[in-house]
């Protein structure tokens, strides 16, 4: 099964100049903790902002959320996958980078969706697919393992990649991971 078959295509996004107050509002209204960020300069995928990113940035900057642009809090080194990737490959990159969500990005850098561990779990439950359920359990175990202080290894070939976006991050180093 391909990621394009499971991914959410109608993704809530924000621009890189959006204030964190607006991000918090979007997250609350849509019951989400992760929003892909789109560059205001060229419309390309620029990174992601998580509820944790916003919280920690506000704490360290000591400013009100409405005075902090998302570009100062977002993560820009992001594990992604293309829409044609197999579900197994997406789960592998989730395990390697210990993330629950993957932006689905074309080779041209355009965001076309997001796939999450929850998407895989719903599919396994709906199809009563024991093999997929076992893969999800392994992935969740890897994601939940304590992280080391070292940066995650680069994905080993294939379709997955760690994408460094052009936007700079100004939050404290290692303050968050998507």
What would you say this structure looks like, in words?
The protein has helices at 3-6, 20-30, 51-61, 87-97, 117-127, 130-144; strands at 14-15, 34-38, 45-50, 77-80, 101-105, 111-116, 161-164. Helices cover 35% and strands 18% of the residues. The two termini are 24 Å apart. The strands form 3 sheets. The protein has a 3-stranded mixed β-sheet. A two-stranded antiparallel sheet has the order 4-7. Helix 4 packs parallel to helix 6 and helix 5 (117-127) runs antiparallel to helix 6 (130-144). The protein contains 6 helices and 7 strands. It is α+β, with helices and mostly antiparallel strands. Strand 2 (34-38) and strand 3 form a beta hairpin. Mean pLDDT is 82; it is low at 151-161 and 166-178. It has one domain: CBS-domain (Roll).
Question: Can you describe this structure in just a few lines?
Answer:
By secondary structure, this protein is of the alpha+beta class. It has six helices and seven strands; from the N terminus they run H-E-H-E-E-H-E-H-E-E-H-H-E. It has one domain: Roll (CBS-domain), CATH 3.10.580.
